[in-house]
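Can anyone check this?
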Amino acid sequence: MKLLHVVQHTSAEFLGQIEDHLEGRNIRFRYYRPFAAGKAMPKAEAMADGLILLGGGPWGSAGTRDVPTLQKEVALAQTCLAHEWPLVGIGLGAQIVALAAGGRSEPAPLSFEVGSARRVSGSALNGYLPLTYPLAVYMRDWPVPPPHAVILAQDERERPALWQIGPRAFGFVGHPGLKVAMVEDLIMEFDESPAGIEAGLARLRQIQRALEDALVPVMTGLVQVMGWMEPSDPGR
């Protein structure tokens, strides 16, 4: 049985709807909360089944308000890339994946955008990525993937919304399993909130079901590409 290591940057943001898809396939996951006192990060040698780096609320990576564990997480992501271990970055996590792969992040104010993304690669996620799907982004700063990344989808402003680096590393600008309650908890957890938060929440409530529906093929393809249903290698 696979064991995925999941790094949180806030108490509010977790895997959300993704949890149900992993549990339904008997894929285990373990959360790490380095912002909590005495909580460790994943050990590099234990990440062979996969590492997931989640969003960070008001934390970023472009120098304005960097998440305190930024360099440690870049190093963990670089280890996954070097070994071609499964790696997923969401929001801030996508920025970290971009940095680890030789890309960068651009300074941008904390924002909450709810719109849509369009697939630009027919083979994305083994062909399972929908042609269009809802995109909800709660994030400070913006990831810029390296030139060798394969862009799989773009947002309404033609910015990369989903990309792939190597065989098993992905950056998701938006959280594909986001729940309304997670955004509400982010607002309560931090003093800083993005502009237009109420309008964003109203829009997220409208598309919540569509977001859940799109997650079904997204997770089908992601699990296949990552090999998460394949037996673990006992020699690792």
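Reply from J.R.: I decoded it. The mean pLDDT is 96.
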